[in-house]
Amino acid sequence: MRTPIQLIITSLLILFSFSLFSQEGEMEKQDTISLITTLQQDAYNDIQTQQLDNVLPKLIQAKKLAKEINSPTHKALVSNTLSYFFYSVYSYELAAMESTMAIGYIKEETSSVDLASAYNLYGLILIKLKDFDNASKYLDRADKIFLALNDEGELAKVKYNKGLLAFEKNEIKIALNYFSAALPVFEAKGLKFFEGYANQYIAKSLILLPANSEEEKTRNINDAKFAIEKTLILSQSYNYFKLETYSYKVLSDIEELQNNAPQALIALKEFVKNNDKLEEIHAAVLSKNIDFESNSADLDAIIATQQSDLDQQQKSITMNRFTTGLSVALIMILSLLTLSLFKNNNLRARANNL
Predict the structure, then answer these.
(1) How many C-beta atoms surround the C-beta of residue 194 within 10 A?
(2) Helices (H), 258-295
């Protein structure tokens, strides 16, 4: 029979061992959380630069780890990033699926930055799905949370998305006001990616904005050119390939409005070249089989949606090449007409001198 002292020593050893195991378990959990965060952030950065080859492997690994530690917050973080990935390759149905999952994981955390971010992204996706009423509701929910948290950077992102909503609804003046309000915050906070997109949409809005006079129209076009040139410099400096690609299209439109046909053609050719590359990247990513650790019914639905998106991408590539080909032809015709007029004017001038 053990003495009281032996029982005390045994109990202390058991408690000490339990404490050690608990500490080791907590340390392992923290290491896992750190790895999830690293994988998620790396994937997010890759999406912004369109370096997409390793995005899905990183996010799939992060999703498995979040499931292992059963952390709703980290499950939401990974699903939100997956949603952003699908959004970036124009697979909006899959983006919506992952976004609603992210919201579901943390919907009880009513003052959470993560929930507000999920609302903001879901609102952005709904804009692309043309569900404008619900997009507005989710953007307002995000706005309310970020306002309570006094998070200026995230509030600016909501403003930018509200600008996109207004732009899609052809409310150009309202859209321009939102983009213009968001831009200085992006600049102050060093949010370069969003700064670039705000400038791009300011340029797009300015060339569509109704003007009361030719002078105002010229000023708007000049301001648009200044904004898009800033965007191109930024996108090239930070390797934001998608931003750079579509900025060339905006620049081409501006050059055409300024009757600079040769420069419009140069910018349009850059857009066509980059856009072909971009669409090939997206199509290649969508064609890959993705294992989400889902049940077979869910996986079949995901693959079916992927195939639909891939088919749509191929149709889009064909149509885009056709329309850009027409644009190139039109600008070349304008260039030839300009050259012809220039030559005719020279001939007339010489004839008059004679």
Answers:
(1) 19
(2) 261-286
DSSP state of 259: T
Write the DSSP assignment of 303-329 as a string of letters: HHHHHHHHHHHHHHHHHHHHHHHHHHH
Query: Alpha helices, DSSP H only, in the chain?
Result: 4-49, 55-68, 72-88, 92-106, 113-128, 132-149, 152-168, 172-189, 192-208, 214-237, 241-257, 261-286, 296-353
d(CA 79, CA 97): 9
Residue 22 CA to residue 209 CA, distance in Å, equals 63
- The whole-angstrom separation of Cα 205 and Cα 196 is 14
How large is the C-alpha radius of gyration of the chain?
27
Nearest to 58 by CA among 76, 35, 25: 35
Q: Please name which of 101, 97, 83 lies closest in space to residue 43, comparing C-alpha atoms.
A: 83
Q: Is-contact 284 268, C-beta < 8 A?
A: no
- Per-residue tokens: 341: 């007029």
Q: Which residues lie closer than 8 Å to 20 by C-beta, 6 or more apart?
A: none
Could you report the per-residue pLDDT of 85-129, keeping only the tens digit for each? 999 999 999 999 999 999 999 988 877 899 999 999 999 999 999
Please tell me the distance from the alpha carbon of residue 285 to that of residue 134, in angstroms, as a whole number. 29
The SS3 assignment for 150 reads coil
| pLDDT 10s digits, 260-287 | 999 999 999 999 999 999 999 888 887 7
CA distance 23 to 21: 5
Can you tell me whether residue 169 is helix, strand or coil? coil
CA–CA dist 297, 52 (Å, integer):
26
Using the 8-state DSSP alphabet, how is residue 90 labeled? T
Query: From CA 130, how far away is CA 168, in angstroms rounded?
Result: 8
